[in-house]
Specification:
647 residues; alpha+beta; eight-stranded mixed sheet; five-stranded mixed sheet; 20 helices; 36% helix; flat; disordered C terminus; binds ligand TSJ
């Protein structure tokens, strides 16, 4: 492989500076893989698949393919195959190479994670295929075209077999198989679930496209086919499957403008008090939103207010806020455009401002019409927003009260809180502990210089069901709110946070996991920046205690148990080791608790991440929503963890 810079000149050989593309060698990819695929961890590994699949999806968008299959092979390889036209194999005059070879050996400057932050879509360039090639121990591509099967092979980016005809065929399409390079990736184990979830999302975003995923690894053979005629309409139905929709039909709006398209699907749910919005640009998830989301929110608020005024549901100065208008909504926004600009640290925010006015006018024109034509649906949505507005007003008053009270009492901290001496929040931690006895041990065992303890006891409020106004007055949650000191809801102010590690410490059993889920739900719903900012952790108390004579060792879970037992037994394997299951935090003394769960030198903390908002929403909704059936189903399906949740 060469490291030189290649300069490709346009066909008519005119020296137009704007048309000269600077192309780097693939060696650069192997030197700094993170620059091209984000990281060399599991997320980077899976990224390889998405880079390849994107090319097949572009072919589908061109109307030339309607089936894609992604499979994990026996030896940890991945194969992606489509029924498109097949990558062109004829030799190009200017380069003396086939398009196929160029796709796999030439890197385009300004990849998704590189400098430019844009992605060429629908072109011949197969952005990303060369990156995958460079990071694969080997890669084989087969093109089915013109009645022939063409094949080319690579290893770590170098050609090891030139383009060869290897057989005849009556089908057309492209097939790529690759084995990720273990010299590059920390772990080359693919997760079928991760792939399936991503492919399902892509099948929803590209209605009419059939995507099949399969796992051929021994002992875990499985296959799923995903096909959604209705596209993002079915995506919304899927997300709302365990909720109670306020209106039967998903509202769907779509339009084209210049070279761009925008699609929006939304449905309100009566039993849900938060919003759930997913936005995409060129099929890429934009968790930080951007112009398309801004246009959606602004227009939704304006259209609902205008309609409310017109029908006299809103009187005088009554006004619905954006949040009121989005309470209980599930919405998908999907735009496609030529030169998408992705902004921000993680390139997950759409920057093209023309998308704001485009999506805004889509809603202004078509949502207004929809409301006019469907007055009963319109009425239900308006009523929900008005109720939300009243609840928010009540919550504001309750919050005012808390604020006034704390101002009078000089920011009194909860009585149960054992605070720490250090005042710099960057250095401090708060353990939120289930139960009074565990709270006692934690207070005894902690390092009071920087560790604070807040014991919680009794049943918590089910926050999913509760409206904001109830949360403010809740006697279990108020201590958490005041101890953290950063407020709640719209008032939440990260800079006022009194501890930068908020550690939930609950038993490793079902009740413990119940408390964790409840607290996490609360943080997720009412202090979301706390979760997003990575401030929330779960302590990991050990499950097992091994004793041999005077030696004691704690083991986190069963995966390490065998090994630890063997080590304790010693060389001869004859030592008698006593194994006991830790019953609960309350049964550890202060010393043990410090050693196993609180000492920063030895403890294991699990940082709570927002990575899968869909999954989080699902667990919360299923376990705590108002619909009983899905909850029962969920608990039955997960019978080994089942308890009477009584919520
Ligand atoms: F990029 C890649 F190599 F990784 C890759 C590309 C991997 C896979 C699984 C599929 C593809 C791919 C490329 N599928 N379909 C295409 N289509 C083209 O490259 C193609 C074919 C014909 C024409 C044409 O104008 O005739 C244009 C294009 C872009």
């Amino acid at each position: 492989m060469t490291d030189e810079l290649l300069v490709s000149i346009t066909e008519d050989e005119e020296y137009d500076a704007s048309q000269i593309q600077v192309l780097e060698g693939l060696e650069a990819v192997r030197k700094r893989p993170g620059m091209y695929i984000g990281s060399t961890s599991s997320s980077g590994l899976h990224h390889l698949i998405y880079e390849i699949v994107d090319n097949s999806i572009d072919e589908a968008l061109a109307g030339a393919c309607d089936e894609i299959a992604v499979s994990i092979g026996k030896e940890g390889t991945v194969t992606v195959v489509d029924n498109g036209r097949g990558i062109p194999i004829d030799v190009q005059e200017q380069t003396g190479k086939s398009a196929l070879e160029v796709v796999f050996t030439v890197l385009h400057a300004g990849g998704k994670f590189g400098g430019g932050g844009y992605k060429v879509s629908g072109g011949l360039h197969g952005v990303g295929a060369s990156v995958v090639n460079a990071l694969s121990q080997w890669l084989t591509v087969r093109v089915y075209k013109n009645g022939q099967i063409y094949e080319m092979k690579f290893s770590r980016g170098d050609i090891i077999q030139e383009l060869t005809i290897v057989g005849e065929t009556d089908r057309s399409g492209t097939e790529v198989t690759f084995k990720p390079d273990s010299e590059i990736f920390d772990d080359c184990e693919f997760s079928y679930d991760v792939i399936k979830t991503r492919m399902r999302e892509q099948a929803f975003l590209n209605g009419g496209l059939r995507i099949t995923t399969s796992d051929e690894r021994e002992g875990r053979e499985v296959s799923d086919t995903m096909y959604y005629e209705g596209g993002i309409i079915e995506f919304v139905q899927y997300l709302n499957r365990n909720k109670t929709p306020l209106h039967d039909h998903v509202i769907y709006l779509a339009d084209e403008r210049n070279d761009s398209t925008a699609e929006v699907a939304l449905q309100y749910c009566g039993d849900v008090y938060n919003e759930f919005m997913l936005s995409f640009a060129n099929n890429i998830h934009t968790p930080d939103g951007g112009m398309h989301e801004t246009g959606f929110k602004a227009a939704l608020t304006r259209v609902l207010n205008d309609y409310g005024k017109k029908l006299n549901i809103l009187k005088g100065d009554d006004k619905l806020s954006g949040e009121d208008c989005r309470e209980g909504v599930t919405a998908i926004i999907s735009v496609r455009l030529m030169e998408a600009q992705f902004e921000g640290q993680t390139k997950s925010k759409l920057g093209n401002s023309e998308m704001r006015s485009f999506v805004d006018s889509l809603l202004t024109e078509k949502l207004s019409t929809f409301l006019e034509e469907n007055p009963s649906v319109a009425r239900a949505i308006l009523d929900k927003a008005v109720t939300a507005s009243r609840a928010r007003e009540a919550a504001r008053k309750a919050r005012e009260n808390i604020r006034r009270k704390t101002a009078l009492e000089g920011m009194s901290l909860p009585g149960k809180l054992a605070d720490c001496n250090e005042t710099n929040p960057e250095l401090t931690e708060i353990y939120i502990v289930e139960g009074d006895s565990a709270g006692g041990s934690a207070k005894g065992g902690r390092d009071s210089r920087f560790q604070a303890i807040l014991p919680l006891w009794g049943k918590m409020l089910n926050v999913e069901k509760a409206r904001a106004d109830k949360v403010y007055g809740n006697d279990k949650l108020t201590p958490v709110i005041t101890a953290l000191g950063a407020g709640i809801g719209e008032d939440f102010d990260e800079t006022k946070l009194r501890y930068h590690k908020v550690i939930i410490m609950a038993d490793a059993d079902v009740d413990g996991s119940h408390i964790r889920t409840l607290l996490l739900t609360f943080f997720f719903r009412f202090m979301r920046p706390l979760v997003e900012g990575g401030y929330v952790y779960a302590a990991q108390p050990p499950l097992f205690k091994l004793t041999r004579g005077k030696t004691v060792r704690y083991v986190l879970d069963d995966t390490e148990l065998e090994e630890a037992m063997a080590e304790m037994r010693g060389e001869d394997g004859k030592g008698k080791v006593d194994l006991s299951r830790n019953k609960g935090l309350g049964e550890m003394d202060a010393h043990e608790l410090w050693d196993t769960t609180m000492n920063p030198e030895t403890r294991v903390l699990k940082q709570i991440k927002m990575t899968d908002a869909i999954a989080a929403d699902e667990v919360f909704t299923v376990l705590m929503g108002e619909k009983v059936e899905p909850r029962k189903e969920y608990i039955e399906k997960n019978a080994k963890y089942a308890v009477d949740l009584d919520i």
